[in-house]
Design brief:
With about 300 residues, the protein is of the alpha/beta class. It contains eight helices and 15 strands.
Length: about 300
């Protein structure tokens, strides 16, 4: 039986327990993403998180960075254009005692070189209501994907979330932060600057110099830095996709989508936020597909 599906990313471990009717009957969510796994103790974390769900002979579906070179088992990539309905039939299998683990593939493209792991699952879930269009998935590594008839035609990655974390917590640019309160005016001003001005590196230093010259309060640093990075990402994404006459579909956590939605609205770019349940929908779809292939 396909007992569970796991979205195991860089930061979080999210598991969904399935019953015989492919319904979600339990969930687990913990801050045990692969970057926190010490000495490759993936099996220990796996069994600690969902061991009480499992029975001999069960199959578990895994997606995300757990299938990367830094993860438990490196699964294959499907090259673009990538038909999303092929995900379930291109898994990499690991037999773990009396369990079968199926690691879903990632997506790659050769020019420009790019890869994704985990976001393809969100896109599959989104195709239930929208099978074509421009999809933006904010996160540690934000993805902009052009979809055509349930196929990923091409995509582009922006390390926006990773840069935000590094700059805010491990650089002189963010070191002047004294208290963390959201300044919407600073966010909006930085969105405009990031979107309209291509001098990204020079603008980054404004985060520090404006505070030193008392042109901005230190508590505004997170909002300013976030706005500058998101505005720059939207500018570059717009240039790379080259078709913003279409509506943008946002997929992601509520707080990130609210920030990106605010920025897109300010820039007069039409968008629609898609339900965060798309990953669950995709897992259920793949589990049904796998079960039907076994019959």
């Amino acid at each position: 039986m396909i007992r569970a599906a796991i979205d195991w990313g860089s930061s979080r471990f999210r598991a969904y327990r399935l019953n015989n009717a492919f319904e979600i009957v339990d969930t687990r969510d913990s801050a045990t993403g692969i970057k926190y796994v010490a000495e490759r103790s993936f099996e220990d974390i796996f069994r600690k998180q969902i061991g009480d769900w499992l029975k001999p002979g069960d199959t578990i579906i895994l997606s995300g960075m757990v299938g990367s070179q830094n993860g438990w088992v490196e699964s294959k990539y499907i090259p673009c254009p990538a038909y999303l309905d092929d995900l379930g039939s291109n898994c990499t299998e690991l037999i773990l005692d009396d369990l079968t683990l199926q690691f879903l593939p990632g997506i790659c493209q050769s020019s420009p070189a790019d890869v994704m792991r985990g976001e393809e699952l969100q896109l599959l879930g989104a195709t239930e209501s929208h099978n074509s269009g421009i999809f933006v998935m904010p996160g540690t590594h934000s993805k902009w994907a052009l979809m055509k008839n349930r196929s990923i035609d091409r995509f582009h990655t922006f390390p926006t979330g990773e840069l935000y974390d590094l700059l805010l917590n491990q650089s002189l640019i963010g070191s002047l932060l004294t208290s963390n309160s959201w300044d919407q005016a600073a966010f909006s001003e930085a969105i405009k600057l990031g979107y309209e001005d291509s001098q990204f590196l020079n603008n980054l230093f404004l985060t520090r110099s404006r505070v030193l010259l008392e042109q901005m309060h230190s508590s505004s640093v997170p909002a300013w830095l976030s706005g500058l990075l998101i505005g720059s990402e939207i500018r570059e994404g717009s240039q790379l996709i080259k078709d913003l006459t279409k509506k943008i579909f946002l997929i992601g956590t509520i707080d990130l989508c609210e920030k990106y939605g605010s920025a897109l609205q300010q820039l007069k770019i039409e968008y629609q936020q898609i339900s965060s349940k798309v990953t669950i929908n995709a897992f259920i779809s793949i589990a049904r597909q796998m079960a039907s292939l076994r019959e």
